[in-house]
Amino acid sequence: MRNAALRNVLGPHVTQKGSLVEADYFRFDFSHGQALTADEIARVEDEVNAIIRQNAEGLIKETSPEQAIAEGALALFGEKYGESVRVLRLGNALGGDALSADGKPYSVELCGGTHVRRTGDIAVFAILSESGVASGVRRIEAATGAAALAHLKAQAALAKAVAGNLRTPLSELPERVSQLQDERKKLERELAEAKKKLALAGDGAQAAPAGPEDVGGVALLARVLHGVPAWASCAGLSMKAKRASARA
């Protein structure tokens, strides 16, 4: 189902490049040229979970590889097929009728592994991470069943803890975090400006230069400043030098 969901969301160019499947975890590598967006990840999760909720029976039949592919089955990366192959039809096409012998399934793949009897046996599906593993190849790691539920509960608990610390309703947490980020940037700018003004005003430890010094025909006003960002000190001294040069 993951392959079908990725192809539906990202496009038909998606093909499997490798995988690891365990009882409640899997890793899936596939062809795609860029990182998935948060919206694309959410759409893949939503689609797979929609098929899970159908609790549709998985249908398996034996046929030739040529006939299976002609019927729309996807051959999996790295698999070698003989004269007869195992074809898995899983789930109902979204928006379609119930799966039947001649109905349109959600996913049709050539695969020799074992599978759940019904999609509902998977319970729930959650993507844990998405990353690049090679040029043009992406990887998703996901959990199912109890492991997926534990992951979602942990994420919810973390969000609730942050909302509690900020004394903000959970529904308003993203907006509150964005506000705090803006406030921090503003304070950092104000602090840098205050340090610059303090340094340029003099602190009694070092007298401010009376005016710019001519160095090779260039007016230079130099002073040692402590605790001031480079961009702020350079900008401040540059402006002061221009003013002093203009007075001269």
Structure classification: alpha+beta
Specify the number of helices: 6
* CATH fold-level name of the largest domain: Threonyl-tRNA Synthetase, Chain A, domain 2
Strand content: 15-25%
Number of beta-strand segments: 10
**What string gives the helices and strands in order?**
HEEHEHEEEEEHHEEH
Q: How far apart lie the N and C ends?
A: 77 Å
Q: Main sheet, how many strands, which sense, barrel? A: 4 strands, antiparallel
- Share of residues in helices: 40-55%
Low-confidence stretches: 97-101
The CATH architecture of the largest domain comes to 2-Layer Sandwich
CATH superfamily of the largest domain: Threonyl-trna Synthetase, Chain A, domain 2
Kindly state the mean pLDDT as a whole number? 83
In total, the number of domains comes to 2
Question: Which CATH class of the largest domain applies here?
Answer: Alpha Beta
Main β-sheet, spatial strand arrangement:
1-2-8-7
* Overall spatial form: elongated
Radius of gyration: 31 Å
Question: What this model shows, in words?
Answer:
The structure is a single chain. The protein is an alpha+beta fold and 248 residues long. The chain folds into 2 domains: 2-165, Threonyl-tRNA Synthetase, Chain A, domain 2 (2-Layer Sandwich), CATH 3.30.980.10; 187-247, no CATH class. Helix content is 40%, strand content 23%. It has 6 helices and 10 strands. The chain has helices at residues 2-10, 38-54, 65-70, 145-165, 173-201, 230-247; strands spanning 16-21, 25-31, 59-63, 74-75, 85-92, 105-110, 125-134, 137-144, 213-215, 218-220. The strands form 3 sheets. Strands 1-2-8-7 form a 4-stranded antiparallel sheet. The chain has a 4-stranded mixed sheet with strand order 3-5-6-4. Strands 9-10 form a two-stranded antiparallel sheet. Strand 7 (125-134) and strand 8 (137-144) form a beta hairpin. Helix 5 (173-201) packs across helix 6. The chain is elongated, with a radius of gyration of 31 Å. The chain starts with a helix and ends with a helix. The model is unreliable at 97-101 (pLDDT under 50).
